[in-house]
Structures are given as C-alpha cells and as structure tokens.
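Minutes, project check-in
Item: structure for the 233-residue chain
Input as provided by the requester:
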Amino acid sequence: MKSARSIRLGVAAMLALPALGMSQSISLTDDLGRERRCQPAEKPKRLPAVADLVDSVALVRTLAESGQADTLLLSLLFDDAGRLTTVRPIEGRAAPPAGLAEAIRSSLKPQKVSGPWAIRLRMSASGPLVQLERSVYCPAAPAQPELSSGTMRIEMRSGDRMPPATGKIRVDAEVRLDAQGTPINVDLRQGSGLREIDEETMRRLQTERFLPALVDGLAVPSWYRTDGSRTRF
C-alpha cells in the first residue's frame, strides 16, 4: 500500500563513478580509442625472484630453439585457484613461440597468491635474460563518466524509511560483468530504505554499458561496485 506522501530526490550522487584514488595511475587508450584509467597490478604483493617462479634456463633454451631473436614480453594470467590460464605476447606476436607456453607451464612453481592475479615475463635469448614485471590492470568502469543522473519523483511505500533531511541517499550494488563488460547479475548490497529508488538503481545498472576490465590489454570477467570497490588483480 502506497502512502499519499511523495518526495522528489536527486539520484545522481548515488550512481556517480567514484574516484579511483590510485597512487600510480596510468592513462591508456584501448583498441576503440577510449581512454582508460589503469594501474600496476597489486598482486602478487611482492614480485618473486625469477627462480622462485619458473626455470629460467629451460625457458631461455626453448626461446633460443624457436628462433626468436628479439626480446619477448609475455603476460601470464592465473585464475582463482592459482592455475595458469593464459600465456600471451603483449607486443609483436599473436601467439608465443612454439613450445614456450608449455615450457612455462611445466616449470611453473606454486605461488601463495589469493584470487586471480597476473604477471609479466620479459625474455631475451640473446642475453640471456628473464625478468618479471608487474602487469597493468584497468578495472571495469561505466562507459559514461557518470551513470544516468537526474532527479526522480517517488511515492513512499509502506515500510519505507524516511530519507535524511538533505535528500541525499546511498545505494550500494554489485554488478557482475562478463569479459565484454555486459552485466550478467546485479546484487543489492545496501538499500536506500526506499524500494522505488532501489528498484530503479537495479534497473539502471542492469542496462548500463560498462568498459570491461583489462589485464595487459586482455578483457577479463570482473565486478563493479557503486561504493568504489573493484575486482583486485
């Protein structure tokens, strides 16, 4: 049962894209010419020594046997269980030299890293040289700098809470995104106390366009939260 009382609230603030607050922010342009706010990957917390991650001697030998003369920069992507899922060149080549991905997998040593993570492997057969570098992570973000904004008039329903006198309200929601940035699920984490506002927020997020998360330029599944939290890499 609806109350006869109606109120008009501004809803822009609750959906605004939060500032990233990164200590090291990197501006990149994706394949479609869109500017992205990125950062060095946070995981692993400390880069391991090369010998603690892979057998560098075996990798350099495999690289030399492949005929690769130039320096090769690879991105290694690991899933939640710590399994290596992707080995891909970042520059120059469409695929790693023959046998190199398998050599990396077979020489890989387990790491104590929780959740998905990534690292870069720079190699040269002429050095010989193997180095580890941090991957670059671009978190998912709304395609527009600010999600749909404006004001809306609502009618309070039975059980709704009165909003604060300022008229400012907060809704926290989490959007699960596929590798294309398409919302596949929206979960309300903290409601406003006004069901009509909560329902409208969910509807907007379900239809919103998002820029997908990128790890070294590769689009990956992720999640986005309106409170500023994000998938961590």
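Outcome recorded: DSSP finds four helices and 16 strands in the chain.
No further action items on this chain.
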